[in-house]
Amino acid sequence: MGARPSAPATADNKLGWTTLTTPDGPFTIVFDDAQTVYASGWTETPDYLDALIAPALRGPELSQRTPGAAADAVLAYYDGDHDAPSRIAVRQSGGPFIEACWTALRAVAPGHPVTYTRLAEQAGRPTAVRGAAQCCVRNAANLFVPCHRVTRSNGTLGGYRYGLDVKASLLAREATNPDVAV
Question: What are the Methylated-DNA-[protein]-cysteine S-methyltransferase DNA binding domain coordinates in residue numbering (predicted)?
Answer without folding.
Answer: 96-175
